[in-house]
Amino acid sequence: MAPDDASQPKAYYGLPREVVFCQRCVMSNQRPSSYPEFKHTKDRVCPTLHIAEDGICDACHYNMSKPAIDWQRREQELLRLLERYRRDDGGYDCLVPGSGGKDSAYAAHLLKYKYGMHPLTVTWPPILYTDYGYQNFKNWIEVGGVDNISFKPNGRVQRLITKLSIENLLHPFQTFILGQKNLAPKMALQLDLPLVFYGESEAEYGNPIAETNTSLRDKSYYSFQNYQELYLGGVPVPELLEKHNLSLNDLAPYFPATRQELEQKRIEVHYLGYYVKWTPQEAYYYAAENTGFSARPFRTQGTYSKYNSIDDKIDDLHYYTTFIKFGLGRASYDASQEIRNNHLTRDEGVALVQRFDGEFPDRYFQEVMDYLEMDPEHFLELCDKFRSPHLWHKVDGQWRLRHQVS
What we know:
By secondary structure, this protein is mainly α. It has a domain at 68-275: Rossmann fold (3-Layer(aba) Sandwich), CATH 3.40.50. Helices cover 41% and strands 8% of the residues. Strand 1, helix 3 and strand 2 form a beta-alpha-beta unit. Helix 3 (102-114) crosses helix 11 and helix 13 packs antiparallel against helix 14 (346-356). The longest helix is centred in the middle third of the chain and has 18 residues, at 174-191.
C-alpha cells in the first residue's frame, strides 16, 4: 500500500498507511513511539515504532543485543556513578519515582539494600486506585522499607483534563502519564537531589531516547518556555485557562521542568535498566519476595497477565483505547515483551493476541464513567469516531481490523 495513494483509506494520527508487524514479536509499526504528549492532537504526526529492513523492530533489536553487553562493566559504571552522589550525613542521595509496582519496587530496593544508597521515593498516585494497587503501594513502604512522598494533584482539575483527553484524544491516561513522568525531576529540583533513577530503559520498548549518562538529552523531560504553545487534553493551554476558569498553578503539575532549571541544578536522570540486566518477570519475582508485591488475583481484561500495570482502574480502559486507535491492545504489549525475553514463542504470542486483544474492560468501566461524569454511550461513540479507516472497517455491521498479526 503506497503511503501517498489517496485512493487508500485515510490514516489518522500520522500513522503509516502500510501496516507492518515485527517478525520476531507481535508489535506493529502503528505503535506510537516516544509520544509528544504536549502537542497531542487528533491529526498530528507522531513518530511510530521503527521496523528495520530485516523485519525486526527496534525494541527486539535492542533486546537481541543484550547478550553481547558486558553487564559487569555496566555495573562498574553504576558503582562509579553512585559513589559520586552517596551521602553519609543522613540525607537522601537519589530519588526514585514510582507507585510500588514491580519495577519501582525492584529499583528502589536494589539501590537501597544492594548498593547502599539512601533513596527517597516519590509517587504520582493512580487516578483511581485498585484495592490491590493501593496495598502494593503500602507494602512498598512498609515491607520494602523505603521513605516516600506522594503528590496528589487537584482532583477537580485532574478529572476535567482526563475527561477532555478522552473526548478530544481518546487518551484516558494523559494526565497520569504526564504527572508520572514529570514529577520526579521537579521534585529533585525542589529537594536539591541531583540524581534520579527510573527503572527499565525506554529502549526496551523501541522508544528512541538516549539512555546513557543523562536523560537531559531527551527533550521529553522539559517543555517549551512559552506555555501558550502547549496543549493539555487536546486543548490549547490559553483556551483551557479561559474557558474553564483555571490558573497556571492548576496546570503546573502536568508541565515538565525547564531544561535551564535542570542544567542549573545539574539534575541527572538515569535508567537503572541501562546498568543492570532488566527482565520484567524477574523484577516481579524480586518485588514479590522483597517488598510484598502481589499480582492481581485475576487475569487483567484485554490480556492474559496479572501483574503488569495493575494499580489504576483507568489503566484497563487506556489499553482498550490503544486498541481502538492503533490496532494494538494490552495483549500485544504483554506478549511482545515476553517474546523478547524468551518466555513465549511468537506463535504463542500470536494466539494470545488473537484471543485477548480488544476485550472490553467492563470490570471498572461504569465506575470510571461515574468518576468522569460521562455517559457510557458517549464513550462508545467516541471510540467509533477515533477508529482510523486504514485500520478498521465494518463487516456485517461489526467493526473488524483490516490487519491482524499472524
